[in-house]
């Protein structure tokens, strides 16, 4: 094949780069809204985000972009260029189905709903948020209907976050996961093991926690010249290969919550930062959607941050930062960060096992909302009933129940399944990394994280969207996306912890 690059391909990259830059500007304004924007900035910010969403949509649906894609479809291209054309076409084909006015309204409604959610949560007032939720559900149904009126609207929305794994494949994985987790949690409940859940009891000033979080990020290898750490009501990470930002939150009764959130968001950021600089503004410089993104955060949070090896090296730093906690042993620290607590109603504070029951609850509710099988007014009651059924706990307030998550205020229906999908992929990846990196456990113990970074960058990060989800996982692990590795890992880990 000739090395000559068609002129149409260069034109395509120029146009796609503009789309990417507008999208990244939207993300930065959204970061500011959640972290730094003054309380009364919402009216202007919603208009700004709405305008940018319209500009991005118009660029993506421009007729000339379609003509370039058609021309390139008939050209001989190498694998990387074919991948770029495939991904741009996938995004454009959805976008051209949706009117710009609807895209603008969804963006504005999401910005307004974010402020309403924050206030409703603070006031424990679901009724104040309900009209915004109803509007977003209606708008997202209309969006799904525009994309494909003959398909399940939830399936259409799920593809916004995981376009490469069919929903039935995802549901099969989630079913396998749930069928393994539920009896394991039941066994834990019945166990007589007495884990050291109070190993980190005390009061921990937020300022001191932030100092420890910054030290943690130093140890993990976070490049401050391309990132920053802030606090937000709901931790998140956003950015590009040049600027990947982390947020966390601090509870002065629980320093481990901030630690695990920070390590989780670091996993997202290190993926973003591992994308190739020279592919910025193209699909090869973008993450392979949210299941893979979540696999990176869950790998660092659970397989590193909750591991015994990590705590063997890290515990002295915690004791030095908070001398009032006494002198817990490594085993006590390991037990404290891994204790299973089915009675915890908060997803972001959930243990590694019951976390997936939190996800199942949200997945079922948002699916029924989008399909029209559940009314918004019923959400608090259904949420509480499912929480009691799955976890044996009933939230005392809507603030710790159906208002606890930020996702629906963004209109992010279809997002939640990617958390559990990310967890199973994380287990597959870490299992492969353990086989291929000599002495990985000892390296984590010594705080040597470069080998794991390099392995993940080589297997996942550097590819951007070159491969679709299942192929990317298969190339890295030799297996299709499956719950098997997670089930084996969880059964062994919690069997040892609880003497099962």
SSE order and pairing:
Elements: H1 7-35, H2 42-61, H3 63-73, H4 79-95, H5 100-123, H6 126-147, H7 153-161, H8 167-190, H9 206-220, E1 229-231, E2 237-240, E3 243-248, H10 255-274, H11 289-304, H12 308-321, H13 330-338, H14 355-371, H15 379-391, H16 417-436, H17 440-445, H18 450-459, H19 469-477, H20 484-498
Short description:
By secondary structure, the chain is mostly helical. It has 20 helices and 3 strands. The protein has 2 domains: 118 residues; 332 residues, Orthogonal Bundle (Neurolysin, domain 3), CATH 1.10.1370.30.
Molecular structure report:
- The protein has 500 residues and is mainly alpha-helical.
- It has two domains: 7-124; 167-498, Orthogonal Bundle (Neurolysin, domain 3), CATH 1.10.1370.30.
- It contains 20 helices and three strands.
- The chain has helices at 7-35, 42-61, 63-73, 79-95, 100-123, 126-147, 153-161, 167-190, 206-220, 255-274, 289-304, 308-321, 330-338, 355-371, 379-391, 417-436, 440-445, 450-459, 469-477, 484-498; strands spanning 229-231, 237-240, 243-248.
- Strands 1-3-2 form a three-stranded mixed β-sheet.
- Helix 3 runs antiparallel to helix 4 and helix 12 crosses helix 13 (330-338).
- The model has no long low-confidence stretch (mean pLDDT 95).
Would you give the CATH topology of the largest domain?
A: Neurolysin, domain 3
**N-end to C-end Cα span:** 59 Å
- How many domains in all? 2
> What is the strand content?
under 5%
Q: Quickly count the helices.
A: 20
Low-confidence stretches: none
What is the number of E strands?
Answer: 3
> How would you classify the helix and strand content by structural class?
mainly alpha
Q: What is the helix content?
A: 55-70%
The arrangement of helices and strands along the chain is: HHHHHHHHHEEEHHHHHHHHHHH
CATH architecture designation of the largest domain: Orthogonal Bundle
Largest sheet: 3 strands, mixed
Strand arrangement, largest sheet?
Answer: 1-3-2
**Could you name the CATH class of the largest domain?**
Mainly Alpha
Radius of gyration: 23 Å
Give the CA-based shape.
globular
């Amino acid at each position: 094949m000739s090395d000559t690059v068609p002129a149409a391909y260069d034109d395509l990259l120029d146009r796609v780069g503009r789309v990417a830059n507008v999208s990244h500007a939207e993300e930065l304004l959204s970061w500011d809204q959640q972290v730094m924007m003054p309380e009364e900035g919402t009216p202007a910010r919603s208009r700004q985000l709405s305008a940018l969403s319209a500009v991005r949509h118009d660029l993506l649906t421009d007729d000339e972009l379609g003509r370039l894609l058609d021309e390139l479809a008939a050209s001989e291209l190498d694998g990387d260029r074919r991948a770029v054309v495939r991904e741009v076409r996938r995004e454009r084909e959805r976008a051209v189905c949706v009117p710009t006015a609807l895209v603008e309204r969804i963006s504005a409604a999401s910005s307004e709903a974010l402020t309403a959610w924050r206030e409703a949560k603070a006031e424990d007032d679901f009724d104040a948020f309900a009209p915004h939720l109803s509007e977003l559900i209606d708008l997202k149904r209309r969006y799904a209907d525009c994309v494909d009126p003959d398909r399940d609207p939830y399936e259409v929305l799920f593809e916004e976050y995981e376009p490469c794994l069919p929903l039935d494949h995802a549901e099969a994985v989630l079913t396998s996961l749930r069928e393994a987790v539920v009896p394991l949690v039941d066994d834990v409940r019945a166990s007589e093991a007495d884990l050291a859940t109070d190993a980190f009891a005390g009061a921990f000033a937020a300022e001191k926690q932030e100092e420890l979080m910054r030290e943690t990020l130093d140890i993990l290898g976070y490049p401050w010249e391309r990132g920053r750490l802030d606090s937000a009501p709901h931790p998140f990470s956003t950015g590009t290969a040049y600027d990947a930002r982390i947020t966390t939150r601090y509870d002065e009764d629980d320093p481990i919550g901030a630690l695990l959130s920070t390590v989780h968001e670091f996993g997202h950021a290190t993926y973003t930062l591992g994308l190739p600089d020279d592919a910025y503004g193209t699909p090869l410089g973008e993450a392979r959607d949210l299941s893979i993104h979540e696999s990176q955060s869950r790998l660092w949070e659970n397989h590193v941050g909750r591991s015994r090896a990590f705590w063997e090296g890290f515990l002295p730093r915690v004791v030095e930062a908070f001398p009032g906690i006494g002198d817990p042993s490594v085993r006590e620290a390991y037990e404290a960060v891994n204790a299973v607590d089915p009675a915890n109603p908060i997803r972001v504070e959930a243990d590694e096992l019951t976390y997936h029951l939190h996800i199942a609850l949200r997945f079922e509710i948002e699916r029924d909302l989008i399909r029209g099988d559940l009314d918004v007014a019923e959400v608090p009651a259904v949420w509480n009933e499912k929480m009691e059924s799955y976890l044996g706990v009933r939230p005392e307030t809507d603030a710790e129940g159906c208002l606890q998550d930020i996702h629906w205020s963004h209109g992010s229906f279809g997002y939640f399944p990617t958390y559990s999908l990310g967890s199973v992929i994380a287990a597959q990846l870490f299992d492969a990394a353990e086989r291929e990196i000599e002495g990985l456990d000892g390296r984590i113990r010594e705080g040597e994280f470069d080998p794991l970074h390099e392995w993940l960058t080589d297997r996942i990060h550097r590819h951007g969207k070159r491969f679709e989800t299942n192929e990317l996982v298969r190339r890295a692990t030799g297996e299709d996306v499956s719950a098997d590795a997670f089930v084996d890992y969880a059964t062994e880990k919690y069997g040892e912890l609880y003497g099962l």
